[in-house]
Write a structure and sequence with these properties.
single chain, alpha/beta, five-stranded antiparallel sheet, 21 helices, Beta-Lactamase, four-stranded parallel sheet, Alpha-Beta Plaits, 619 residues, rod-shaped, binds iron/sulfur cluster, 46% helix
């Protein structure tokens, strides 16, 4: 079966008015749900959420189809009409007209629940007369019963063990019109729809229509009072039970004493009053010493009635309907029938369906601190829909609410968020500034490096020695003019097309024995110093060195035939020979006892000759 009340997701505007209105926190708000969700196990069917939802996103279970299906099945279907119908249909001139309108839908009988009120009132009268010091809560309002069963089950033993007037009437009509009859209650409260799931077979209510659904059926089946004749209710007829829609009407029907001095029964109506009276009945019942007649809302203003109904006008209509009914009332017949059905069993039992959850105090305190920071537990602003900050914290602990429903919490978080945004913005600005500065430094460094590179390249090109720099594939990265000159005509021609031979493959320009030395340096990361190599008719001297391991190698190549090289080289090599020979000569002199001065003198004379005769050095 569909839930009694549900939220239509696409209509919900997330205003949370329903959450605030629900007296038992049966509407769950969770961050993983797009819209609030009604929890059927906690819902008591009061309809408050429906009445406050302006986009009409909350619907109660529709019973029109099931009712009409029953009627169309050919079964005997009896309408049990709540007396509050008089308050709902003041637009229908005579009550007998709406009896006929209901009959026109196909009901086999149309009976008054007022008779059930009379019967039950008699039972209450008896119960309270013999109450033996135990005080009772009258069980006429299904919302109050649901509240006690789910949220104050300690009071179940004090619930008067009597069925509702509607169930009492169902028992009577089955007894009168046949046990196989189906019954449909037509009334102002939506919680009655759940009564069809309960009760003995003889008191079963097969379906329950609200007055609003009845209006919809009239419209759907084009039932118009102007086209109909009168028709009265089917017996048995009710007496003062017609006053039931007014909260203390049942007391008058039962003849219970409401006198403040002599009576011992208190009538309560409204959500806050219901909760307060039940709390006080439980805690201080021995001081109060009174039975309680409690309604969540007067029946004539129930959630199944038309919107914007005026309570006191409805009350007046109910009273005038009751008076009208009594004008031609056959009291004897009524008493006889009352007697006839008094033997039926009108007792009932209640179920403990405790829906209270008990989070640990530690958890509640933790949430209070998160909500308020100061952890205070006061009445709060009520914007979340809970009576106090503590109630709200308990609901969060029970997973019925989220902290975001608290304005205080949300505002504080928003401010914190703004503050953190401000801090990160400041940090961002600082980083941006530092970035700009380092960009400037990097640009300057780049420019300096470029300048240095240009200077180095220029210097490289002016060096008398041949310089070449290669990548790991032996492609030329840099080569100076001396190197290009040294390679000869072919290289000179390439240089005209590709200045500096950049990208040229050394392997195509030099023989294997030459470029193989570069490969060696690249592979072994080991420099080669002063290696003499024949190149055509030249003797070249090569020193290759690692610039970047395995990636770049550089080389200085000297043409040993060039005069300045030859002179310099001869000086260098003779100096090396002197150093080497000196050591040898010193050893020999030491051994022979002779000086090596002659050899030394001779070698020095060669050096001097080269130093002082630069133009005489050609072979
Ligand atoms: S009152 Fe209606 S619109 Fe607002 S949150 Fe509840 S269901 Fe949605
Ligand atoms: S019907 Fe009443 S108890 Fe159920 S969700 Fe709506 S307000 Fe809450």
């Amino acid at each position: 079966m569909k839930p009694l009340v549900e939220i239509i997701d696409h209509k919900c505007k997330l205003c949370y008015a329903c959450v605030r209105a629900c007296p038992v926190n049966a509407i769950q708000v969770r961050s993983d749900q797009a819209v609030p969700k009604i929890m059927p196990n906690r819902c008591i069917g009061c309809g408050s959420c429906i009445q406050v939802c302006s986009p009409e996103a909350i619907m109660y279970r529709d019973s029109k189809e099931e009712t009409m299906a029953m009627i169309k099945s050919g079964a005997s279907v009896i309408a049990l009409v709540d007396p509050s119908i008089s308050g709902e249909f003041p637009d229908v001139v005579d009550y007998r007209k709406f009896v006929q309108m209901i009959r026109s839908l196909g009901f086999s009988h149309v009976c008054e629940v007022s008779f059930g009120v009379d019967l039950i009132a008699k039972e209450y009268s008896q119960l309270f007369k013999d109450f033996k010091g135990k005080y009772y809560i009258m069980a006429n309002c299904p919302v109050v019963i649901g509240y006690i069963e789910k949220f104050q089950p300690e009071l179940i033993p004090n619930l008067a063990p009597l069925v509702s007037p509607a169930v009492a009437t169902a028992k009577v009509v089955r007894s009168k019109y046949g046990n196989d009859s189906k019954t449909v209650y037509i009334g102002p409260v939506i919680a009655s729809k759940n009564e069809s799931e309960m009760g003995d077979e003889d008191g079963k209510i097969n379906s329950s229509l609200t007055f609003l659904e009845l209006r919809e059926l009239f419209s759907e089946y084009n039932i118009d009072e102007k086209q109909l004749e009168f028709s009265d209710f089917d017996p048995p007829y009710g007496f003062t039970g017609a006053l039931f829609p007014i909260a203390n009407g049942i007391l008058q029907v039962a003849g219970l004493d409401e006198d403040l001095l002599t009576g011992n029964i208190t009538t309560v109506e409204g959500e806050r009053e219901m909760k307060a009276s039940l709390r006080q009945f439980q805690d201080e019942g021995d001081i109060i010493n009174s039975h309680f007649n409690i309604f969540y809302t007067e029946f004539l203003m129930g959630p199944g009635t038309s919107k914007n109904g005026k309570k006191y006008i409805r009350r007046a209509t109910v009273k005038s309907y009751a008076k009208k009914r009594l004008k031609k009332f056959k009291h004897d017949e009524w008493e006889k029938e009352l007697e006839e059905y008094s033997h039926l069993d009108f007792t009932r039992k209640f179920q403990n369906n405790d829906q209270r959850l008990y989070p640990t105090e530690e958890k509640v305190q933790q949430i209070l601190v998160e909500l308020r920071q100061d952890g205070r537990d006061d009445m709060g602003c009520g914007a979340c829909g809970y009576g106090s900050c503590r109630d709200f914290a308990v609901a969060i602990a029970k997973d019925l609410a989220t902290p975001e429903m608290c304005n205080h919490y949300t505002n504080r978080n928003r401010q914190n968020y703004i503050q953190s945004l401000k801090i990160s913005n400041d940090k961002l600005a600082q980083t941006e500034k530092a970035l700009r500065e380092s960009e400037l430094i990097a640009r300057k460094e780049k420019e300096a490096a470029k300048e240095a590179s240009e200077i180095t390249t220029a210097m490289l090109h002016k060096l008398p020695s041949a310089i070449v720099i290669l990548d790991e594939k032996l492609k030329i990265l840099q080569a100076n003019e001396t190197f290009i000159e040294m390679l000869g005509d072919e290289a000179r021609e390439i240089n005209e097309i590709i200045p500096g031979l950049v990208g040229a493959d050394l392997k195509t320009l030099l023989p294997y024995n030459f470029y193989n030395l570069f490969s060696y340096v690249l592979i072994n990361n080991e420099s080669v110093q002063n290696r003499d190599i024949s190149f055509g008719d030249k003797l070249l001297n090569l020193s290759a060195f690692v610039i970047r391991k395995g990636k770049i190698v550089g080389a200085v190549v000297r043409d040993m035939g060039a005069p300045e090289v030859r002179k310099e080289e001869v000086i260098k090599r003779v100096t090396e020979a002197i150093d080497k020979n000196l050591s040898l000569v010193q050893q020999i002199a030491f051994l022979l006892g002779e000086g090596a001065s002659e050899t030394e003198r001779m070698l020095h004379s060669i050096i001097e000759f080269y130093k002082t005769n630069p133009r005489k050095d050609k072979p």
